[in-house]
Write a structure and sequence with these properties.
The complex is a heterodimer of chains A (143) and B (152). With 143 residues, chain A is of the alpha+beta class. Chain A folds into 2 domains: 6-40, no CATH class; 50-142, GMP Synthetase, Chain A, domain 3, CATH 3.30.300. Chain A has 4 helices and 6 strands. In chain A, strand 4 (79-89) and strand 5 (93-104) form a beta hairpin. In chain A, 53% of the residues are buried. Chain B folds into 2 domains: 1-49; 51-148, GMP Synthetase, Chain A, domain 3 (2-Layer Sandwich). Chain B has helices at 37-41, 51-73, 115-128, 130-135; strands at residues 4-13, 20-25, 33-35, 80-92, 96-109, 140-148. In chain B, the strands form 2 sheets. Chain B has a 3-stranded antiparallel β-sheet. Chain B has a 3-stranded mixed β-sheet with strand order 4-5-6, with helices on one face. The radius of gyration of chain B is 18 Å and the shape is elongated. The chains are: A alpha+beta (143), B alpha+beta (152). Chains A and B meet through strand 1, strand 2, helix 1, helix 2 and strand 4 of A and strand 1, strand 2, strand 3, helix 1 and helix 2 of B.
Chain lengths: 143, 152
């Protein structure tokens, strides 16, 4: 069992106010400023947002699950490069998550890697928690 | 409605037990944060983040903005909100590791709002926070809230 904590403060209304991701339990990041404008407009102004943090969580979780699956199959990866892009429609919610992964896995062909990546996408804990997202896509390549 | 895209990128090297990864945000707000499996599932954190910590930050941010919006709609924008979320991952029999809880504590300073009105605003903010709605697929979401005396 693992508990992970984060603390956020906010001052003022949604549109005119602003907030800060003050602290996370590990101390790995923060304080980070957040605002509605940075969250809901194409230009972020260099500010993070809940959707970017979800992208980071999903990409990290998927990478660990894939690494685990590959190691269990006897073909641990040398390197995985993963990205997750979360699409947010204000007023509607999170409509899509697009995962991409490029892997260097000695002794495994492209099809084997694609299957391992599909399994990781189905089973990683963040994928299960976000199963309500309408569309989660996966784009796989090897190098 | 605009479609807003936010991206994060990961590099992972090695197998899951001994490998390590790093996380960078598309906006540049954070770069090359290290993470690893022992830290993810262990009690200590060695200063490393994890998917669950990132989700805790996302959930607290989402709730804070949702509550700021809801309070503003009611004509009582908040002076200050503090939101703390704890995300728990646990091994569930027959299902492997799952995210089982997000437990959030909200403290608010809001002028001219009674406790019942505040509780209702918190309930609506939780219902409308897109992240709260999503993670209910596997997790129980609890939001406890209290009003602080306004000092202004």
């Amino acid at each position: 069992m693992a508990d992970r904590t984060a603390r956020v403060s906010w001052e003022g209304s949604l549109l005119e106010g602003s907030g800060t991701i003050e602290q996370v339990g590990s101390g790995a990041f923060g304080p980070l400023p957040v605002s509605w404008a940075a969250r809901s407009e194409a230009a972020s102004g260099g500010k993070t947002s809940p959707e970017e943090l979800i992208a980071a969580a999903h990409a990290a979780c998927f990478s660990m699950a894939l690494s685990s699956g590959l190691a269990q199959a006897g073909t641990p990866p040398e390197r995985l490069e993963t990205s997750a892009t979360v699409t947010f429609v204000p007023g509607t919610g999170i409509t899509k998550i697009a995962l991409t992964v490029d892997g260097r896995v000695p002794g495994l062909d492209d099809e084997g890697f694609r299957q391992a990546a599909e399994t990781a996408k189905e089973n990683c804990p963040v994928s299960k928690a976000l199963a309500g997202v309408g569309e989660i896509t996966l784009d796989v390549s090897t190098s | 409605m605009p479609r807003i895209e936010r991206t994060a990128a990961i590099t992972w090297e090695g197998n899951v037990a001994r490998g390590t990864g790093s996380i960078s945000a598309g906006t540049g707000a954070f770069t090359e944060l290290p993470f690893s499996l022992p830290v993810r599932v262990g009690a200590g954190n060695e200063g490393k983040t994890s998917p669950e910590e990132l989700l805790a930050a996302a959930h607290a941010g989402c709730l804070a903005m949702g509550l700021a919006s809801e309070l503003t709609k009611r004509g009582t924008p908040p002076g200050r909100l503090d939101v703390r979320c704890v995300v728990r991952m646990d091994e569930v029999e027959g299902k492997g590791h799952q995210i089982v809880h997000s437990t959030c504590e909200v403290t608010a300073r809001v002028g001219a709002l009674d406790a019942a009105g505040f509780e209702d605003a918190v309930r609506v903010a939780d219902e409308e926070c897109p992240f709260s709605a999503l993670i209910r697929a596997s997790a129980e979401v609890t939001v406890n809230a209290r009003l602080e005396e306004s000092d202004g």
